Structure formats: structure tokens, C-alpha cells
Amino acid sequence: MFVVIEQILGSDRTPFLMRSAETRTIVSEGKECSVSPLDTIQRLYAGFAPADLPAVLAGMAPDIEWTEAEGYPYAGTFHGPQAIVDGVFIRLATEWEGYQAVPDRYVSQGEEVIALGHYSGTYKATGKSFRAPFVHAWTVKGGRIVRFVQYVDTVLVQRALQP
Questions:
Q1: Exposed e or buried b for every residue in 47-78, given b needs 16+ CB within 10 A?
Q2: Which residues are within 8 A (CB) of 96 and not within 5 positions of it... i.e. 6 or more apart?
Q3: CA 137, CA 151: separation in Å to the nearest integer?
Q4: H-assigned helices in the chain
Q5: Over the chain (163 residues), what is each successive 10-residue block's mean pLDDT?
Q6: Among 122, 115, 112, which residue's Cα sits nearest to residue 151?
Q7: Cβ-contact 24, 18 below 8 angstroms
């Protein structure tokens, strides 16, 4: 099996990632550990909390397909990490105060990971807050996130956007 090694961040003590068909192996300071699809998704959410964009993007495949639910403010399908940053993440950071996506539990089987959780935040333009449950469906292949689909009660989100 062919394995690709790449450095994901710029510091001299940065872990290297080795990708294989089913798990990603992190090699740091001579130690190795396998990273399952569930681990990959949990690391992504851990990066959301402190707004650590390099950590969030590190697990994404270059050709990731990211689908925001119809009726959500950023509805549509985005292809590639930069499109996601431009179409979703920058807008979340600039249009909301205290926006959060918090997973409460996970269900994982093979390459598929489902996160059940809730969104919350205050829309800056209206000053209105919301809290809405979500389901995120993730597909991880070769240690990289290749697909994301969002399910959310968009009515609860839309109420925060209305004056």
C-alpha cells in the first residue's frame, strides 16, 4: 500500500501525517498512533472551539464536498477547503457573536461518522440569539474528511436573522 507523508503545519515540532486507506497515523517525536474516522472528526470539533483554523482544515481532503442545509444562511455545496473558508467560516466569524457548533454525541461506523449536537450564537445584525439542534454526517476516507452534510432546524436559525 502506498503511503503519503505530509507536514500539515509549519513549526519544527509539527506532527507528520501518514495517510492510508482506513486510518491516518500521526508520527510525532518518534511515536505513532492510528487516527480513526471518529478521531478525525473529534479533532475537527476541538479545533472549532478556539477557532483554530489550521487544525480544522488539517483533516480535510483537498476535494472535500461540504453541504450546508437548504434554508440555512449559507446554504449550498462548497468544494475544497478554501471555498468552505470563504463561503461559510469567514461569514460565521464576521456575522455572528459567540457562534458555536457543539457535538453532544457521536455515532460511527466504518468511514461514516454522525455528530449530534447544537448550534448557538447571536446574529450581529439583529442582536437575536438562537439555539438549534443539528446532525452532521461526515465521511472520512484515508484519514481525510471527504464529505460533510448538515441537517438543522433552519426555522430556529432564521428567527435570529429576522428583525
A1: bbeeeeeebbbbbbbeebbbbbbeebbbeeeb
A2: 121, 122, 123, 124
A3: 8
A4: 37-48, 53-58, 81-84, 90-95, 154-161
A5: 26 30 44 79 90 90 98 97 96 95 97 98 98 98 96 97 95
A6: 115
A7: yes
